[in-house]
Amino acid sequence: MRGAATKLERKNVIIDSGKVKRLKKILGTASDSETIRAAVDRALAAETAISALDRLHKRGTWGKALAT
C-alpha cells in the first residue's frame, strides 16, 4: 500500500504484544513493524471507505437500486 516515496520514521510506542502477535498471524506479516504499518494502512483505507459511504448516504444515493 505504501508508495516509493514513503518516509519511515522510528517511533517508540507502548503496545499490547499479544494483540500484535495475533494481528501478525491474521495479516501474515513477518515482523512487528510490518504488522503495525499494515494495520495503519488498513485503518486509513477503512476511513476512506467509510467517508465515501457517508457522502453517498448524504447525497441520497445510498440504498437505492443502482441497477435493475
Please tell me about this protein's structure:
- The chain contains 2 helices and no strands.
- The chain has a domain at 17-59.
- The protein has 68 residues and is mostly helical.
Question: Which features would summarize this protein structure in a list?
Answer:
single chain; 68 residues; mainly alpha; 2 helices; 0% strand; elongated
Q: Give the tally of β-strands.
A: 0
Taking the alpha carbons of the first and last residues, their distance comes to: 35 Å
Judged by helices, strands and strand pairing, the structural class is: mainly alpha
Oligomeric state of the chains in view? single chain
Strand count, sense and barrel status of the largest sheet are: none
Shape: elongated
Rounded Rg: 17 Å
Topology:
Layout: H1 17-27, H2 32-59
Helix pairs in contact: 1-2
Short précis:
This protein is mostly helical and 68 residues long. It contains two helices and no strands.
